[in-house]
Amino acid sequence: MANPKIEWSDALSHLLALATRLEGEGQYNIAKLARAAADALSRQAAFKIVMPTAKDKLINEIEQAVITLSALGMDENLLAALKRGAVALGEGRLPLINETPNAFVCRTCGFITLNEAAGKCPICGAWATTFKQFLPVYWLNALEPFAALERLRQTPLDVATLLEGLIEETLSQAAEDGGWAIRNIIAHLRDAEGVLSFRLNLLLEQENPYLESKAVFVWATREEACPPTTQEIFNVYKTSRQETITKLESIPLRDWWRTGQHEEFGTVTLRQQVSYFASHEITHLPQIELLRRQLHLDK
Ligand SMILES: [Zn+2]
User: Fold this and answer.
1) How far is the CA of 241 from the centre of ligand 1 (A)?
2) How much distance in Å is there from the Cα of 133 to the middle of ligand 1?
């Protein structure tokens, strides 16, 4: 073990090469295990690295990544997009789709491009339609229509259980790290539901409407937009959700593929918007559970 770092990256490339070869033999079940192992190894290594939360330090990390990637011969367009992202971060805003387009990677040779795949891979000749597309967040394609509807129905029930028996003082208590109180999380769920409801109307009433990017995250702590009790905030969320579900159940299935132009994410379907919001909500439930533990409400 003279240089474990090199051994690690060697193991990774060998695993992926093996997976590609196995796929060539039609051995997809063995190939999937090799790909899963490579993905797990990468994520396990990344999990041990502590990244800064401060904005300027994060910008520095992006700049360092650009230097490293440049030395490794990475595509210039991707590096330029990363730099534009760092500038936007510095300006305190989210970069838009025209500044940071989706990336496409050739599954065969690893050729990378920011242009919508067309024609053939200039390196290996693979058809561009087989490229892997990198979307901003997996939530966009996580849930099929029926699973998404079920999720939209279930989450308010799960939240209600987590809120049961809590008094306002407890609900308003900030997290140990100074972060959101349970009240802020509920306000955030209400706000996200509001954006979903608004966008569904646009997508159903207009052809390919423009969908503005919303900084929903910063609204959660705006008390002027909140009724006095958390239960009332929750009720607004629950009522709007019921209307959303009724609407989604009444539209023809093909309408789930109506599109809009999202300022931040580019072309999105109604199906992707519903999947996004239904998936996003689930990520906030462990946050409420953690707060309950911090407040000694659960063991
Ligand atoms: Zn290729």
Assistant:
1) 45
2) 14
Strands of the chain, DSSP E: 103-105, 112-113, 132-134, 210-211, 259-262, 266-269
Residues 284, 149 share a domain: yes
CA of 111 to the centre of ligand 1 (A): 5
- DSSP per position, 126-187: -BGGGSEEE-S-GGGGT--HHHHHHHHHHHHHHHHHHHTT--HHHHTPPPTTS---HHHHHH
The number of domains in the chain is 2
Do 37 and 180 share a domain, yes or no?
no
**Rounded distance from Cα 252 to ligand 1 centre (Å):** 39
Find the 129 Cα to ligand 1 centroid distance in Å: 11
Q: Separation of 121 CA from ligand 1 center, angstroms?
A: 5
Distance (angstroms) between ligand 1 centre and the Cα of 21 equals 15
Ramachandran angles phi, psi of 258, nearest 5°: -65, 145
| In a shared domain, residues 143 and 45 | no
Tokens of 160: 């209600």
**C-alpha 125 – ligand 1 centre gap (Å):** 6
What is the residue range of 19's domain? 1-49
pLDDT, tens digit, for every residue of 207-240?
A: 999 998 877 777 777 777 777 789 999 999 999 9
List the shell of residues around ion ligand 1, using CB closer than 5 Å: 106, 108-109, 111, 121, 123-124, 126
Q: In the predicted model, what is the mean pLDDT of residues 268-279?
A: 96
Expressed in angstroms and rounded, the spacing between residue 105 Cα and the centre of ligand 1 is 8
Q: Do 149 and 271 fall within a single domain?
A: yes
pLDDT digits (tens, 9 = 90+) for 25-82: 999 999 999 999 999 999 999 999 999 989 999 999 999 999 999 999 999 999 999 9
pLDDT of residue 298: 67
Whether 132 is in a domain gets the answer no
Identify whether residues 283 and 158 lie together within a single domain: yes
